[in-house]
Amino acid sequence: MAAYDDLMAFQRDTMALAQVAGRLGWDQETMMPRGAADQRSDEMAAMEKVLHARRTDPRVGEWLAAIDDAALDPVGQAQMRHIRKAHARAMKVPADLAAEIAKVTSKAQGQWAQARADEDVAAFLPVLEQVVALKRREGQALADGGDVYDAMIDDYEPEMTAAELGAMFGAMRPRLVALREAVLEAEAPQAISGHFPADKQMELTAKLATTFGYDLHHGRIDKAVHPFSSGSGHDVRITTRTSELDPFNCLYSTIHEVGHACYEQNIDDAYLLTPLGGGVSMGVHESQSRIYENQLGRSAAFTGWLYGQMKDTFGDFGIADADEFYRSVNRVHEGYIRTEADEVQYNLHVMLRFDLERALMQGDLDVFDLEAAWNDRFEADFGYAVDKPSNGCLQDVHWSVGLFGYFPTYSLGNVYAGCLYQALRGAVPGLQDQLARGDLAPATGWLRDNLQTHGGLYEPAEVVERASGVAPGPEPLLEYLEAKFAGIYRL
Amino acid sequence: MAAYDDLMAFQRDTMALAQVAGRLGWDQETMMPRGAADQRSDEMAAMEKVLHARRTDPRVGEWLAAIDDAALDPVGQAQMRHIRKAHARAMKVPADLAAEIAKVTSKAQGQWAQARADEDVAAFLPVLEQVVALKRREGQALADGGDVYDAMIDDYEPEMTAAELGAMFGAMRPRLVALREAVLEAEAPQAISGHFPADKQMELTAKLATTFGYDLHHGRIDKAVHPFSSGSGHDVRITTRTSELDPFNCLYSTIHEVGHACYEQNIDDAYLLTPLGGGVSMGVHESQSRIYENQLGRSAAFTGWLYGQMKDTFGDFGIADADEFYRSVNRVHEGYIRTEADEVQYNLHVMLRFDLERALMQGDLDVFDLEAAWNDRFEADFGYAVDKPSNGCLQDVHWSVGLFGYFPTYSLGNVYAGCLYQALRGAVPGLQDQLARGDLAPATGWLRDNLQTHGGLYEPAEVVERASGVAPGPEPLLEYLEAKFAGIYRL
């Protein structure tokens, strides 16, 4: 089919250009000379214009009209599903609205950073109001009369709805609040302390990355202010950071990013530079980073091995044995910041944002009431008051840059990880023994073969269900968390 | 003028995209994971397609037709000169010929590398014959009935001709051959020897880079297999390499690349991401790298300062004093390889290539007679025979990738550097005292203000003449070389 071949050739170049733009982003965070920022923003803008023009290229519409999807094989049909969806999305949003969103969010991000530094919510709300209004207009354009917030979620988690997420989170929240309270009333494990040289952390973190299956022949590790994974296929790079007082920051952010990176590296080579050649959704992506980091990386078995590695690397660091080390790695502590939260509390942070942004998008919450709503909800779930805006509603960049519908995918990823881990334990005999000797190959191999390899071939919930054997739901995650922390805190 | 503004906005994005493509090339040589090479070639090809489509975009022709250059200020007129020229060039070469050249040179580069490794000229000549035939067709398309080789030179050195270069080189060659013979009959200076740790070379090389004015706020230094400078404006990066037995390789390649990089960094900010925002020609570019490296960097005054820096960095390395060090830095030695040649012999290597490629392009030399012609000419100028093809006609990558007309710009750069240095000595009082204390600011500042800042504003020979006060010619270079090496070799 000539139209299909032409479309796929066009698509392949578009994906290649998107990889280039992504690598430019990586360069900006790792290598770029500081004085190049202004020129770089012109370069990025030029790349964005090229990508936007390709997404709305009239030839794509002509090819799409000429292609009979039913005549294609299942892979071809999956490619078409992605391409048709992306094209429909691009056509629905008027160019002037897209340009206005880009302009206002660029301004809003700067104002958010300043407002956070100044602890001044009022300085941020006027521009946030503009962002919310523009995103609601975009959502209305996308929703075809349906739910505005659903349309936004669909950008990050296809086929998922706010109602489904709301039901899932509603079941989780009381049990997580109860677990949190029980844990914080029990005796706390010892926190790690001491001095851990950055260069030794980087050596150990590189070893952990390859232990978890990260392929340095198709990737590299650098330092950056924020850890991230970037790129698809044969060039997937990760970053980490070091704090000499807290080695877990570096080591576990690396394992987390390795989960993301392995997903991208392990997608079937046949999908390279096609719409199937990237992770299928934010939720599934997060399931991989989370299962690597938590269910595997923070398990009793694996931390037993890591304890030995830490002692080899840093010498004695004041934690008596592997069991205390396991408890220390999984220590639950009070705090305001989502990105610093432990497994027990993390989803409570996310659900708070989900409910607030859902209300903002659906017109049930005014931007000027956001801070009060945030602070009330935080105190209800965490039992203490937000002390300052940078610990409250100004802590995350997401809303300033127009990311609405993104937050819930963090918790959905945890839910997916719970389902996958349940299946993994059944499917890999001797898993705990393998983890205890630092052998991650069977576990990550199972994830590769049952989930990662498929890339965008199936819808998100479908690929999780195919791998885990159950329709995704929160029960496996909740049971895992309750059992794990009952053990650690001797509840 | 709306058409001019539209054209310049379009051009600005094109320049920004060209910067992105260039940075991708930098990444490939410095950072890219080895396993990413195949994906990278798809990414580069996609960028090239975008750039090619912009160069031949029909809107450009419409804007050009609508613009009255005479109504513009001198800067606008210079911008139009570049844009009209590039557009005319893009229109003259048929798309299928351009694609064929890209395809064949890509293949030829691989075959050249293999043939060089195998010392097998015959394996390379069939594909070189194809390259030569295609480049001659391109030259004919560009030349409008004029000289094919002139049309090619014009790509690298606008307004220069083979006849002019031939006359210049004809005047230089006998004096350089005579100087070479006299020098090699005299007593040779001591060669540097010892062990120079790579990390200390990198420290010293970074210090040298900033000493020569390289701005690390808008650049960075990394290691690569081949030293190069990459990028324009606010993001100009250089690479170097280290050999622990030969510190001059690292230090002088850095000074050379800093010359190129400072030219790009020092162009007037008003020209950023416009056709005036890059070096005006290969010859002028090379004049900057060469004057930094040789006339300044290998001067008696500066090497006196460098001798102290070397001792501070590496301790005693067996050279007794600054005078011996100066002689050692400028040691003339026999050899086959252009890139390893000293100031005396370098231009003889270039002239050999100029005469041969001119004959190839003009149809006066058959590809299958190339090796014999090379070897005859080499023996005539250097007095000994080529021992193997990798030391002879297979040593350079240029012809395999279709670079004809590029070689002479290396020597033209030296000629320009000779003119500029003559003027610099007159214009900067106390120059030798400054160099002797490692103060390069007055010299590089003069080059910045009199030449580099102009970018593409003037034609190459014009900008050199404006700075040096004389029409470019070889006499200043020859006098400089004869005096310098008479002193070093006590002729």
Structural notes for this entry:
The structure is a homodimer of 491-residue chains. With 491 residues, the first copy, chain A, is mainly alpha-helical. Chain A folds into two domains: 2-155, no CATH class; 156-491, Orthogonal Bundle (Neurolysin, domain 3). Helix content of chain A is 65%, strand content 2%. Chain A contains 20 helices and three strands. Chain A has helices at residues 2-30, 37-55, 58-66, 74-92, 95-118, 121-143, 148-156, 162-185, 198-211, 247-266, 282-296, 300-314, 322-329, 343-361, 370-382, 407-427, 431-436, 441-450, 460-468, 475-488; strands at 221-223, 229-230, 237-240. In chain A, strand 2 (229-230) and strand 3 form a beta hairpin. The longest helix of chain A is centred in the N-terminal third of the chain and has 29 residues, at 2-30.
Series of secondary-structure elements of chain A, N-terminal to C-terminal: HHHHHHHHHEEEHHHHHHHHHHH
- Domain count of chain A: the total is 2
Strand content of chain A: under 5%
Helix content of chain A: 55-70%
Give the CATH topology of the largest domain in chain A.
Answer: Neurolysin, domain 3
CATH uppermost class of the largest domain in chain A:
Mainly Alpha
Query: Number of helical segments of chain A?
Result: 20
Please identify the structural class of chain A as seen in this structure.
mainly alpha
| Terminal CA distance of chain A | 63 Å
Indicate the multimeric state: homodimer
Family (chains A, B): Belongs to the peptidase M32 family.
Organism (chains A, B): Thalassovita aquimarina
Enzyme class (chains A, B): hydrolase
Catalytic activity (chains A, B): Release of a C-terminal amino acid with broad specificity, except for -Pro
